Input
Amino acid sequence: VIASISGGKDSTIIFHLCLIVANEKNRLPLRVSFIDEESEWSYTIDQVRDIMYRKDVLPMWYQMPMKCNNAASFKNHWFYAWKDGAKWVRDKEPIAITKNDYGTDRYAELFSAIPRKDFANQTVAYIAGVRTEEAPARMMGLTSNVTYKWITWGKQLNKKLGHFTFYPIYDWGYNDVWKSIHDNKWTYNKLYDLQYSS
Output
């Protein structure tokens, strides 16, 4: 089981829910994955650091060369994160996985390439924080077909290897997210406070 985080509010919920269950089942430390696109908000990285440096976490922080879709340019389709020899937005973390030997340099493809290489002989369940409230089209995608046993709220990364991603808070609203964060006094990305004040 791997909690997949982005540093946002939904992945904060996922991390804490996974941590609760892992603790109950005596399965600590919890594996936590973050594929770092380099040009992240500093508050986002603060939140990721708060999670990744915990003693009950086994960090999988990827800061390696990759190509990400570039939404900031009409001319350059790709943004090259962590490019070798380039000046980076910030330094790499001492705990980071920095070598990309996963057979792809595309950000989106890494989510299935990493478990295919690192967990080829194990079943894998990524737990991620996708909610259908943010994109109503996701509701059809996450409830129309069975992914695993009776579960529809996920996707198959590699059925043959037994690699899946599950989205257990797919039907939560943003009020559910913030209520959980505040009721449990969980730390969260402070960028949301700035956005709210604006």
About this structure: The chain has six helices and eight strands. The helical segments are 9-24, 42-52, 107-118, 137-143, 174-184, 191-197. Residues 9-24 form the longest helix (16 residues).
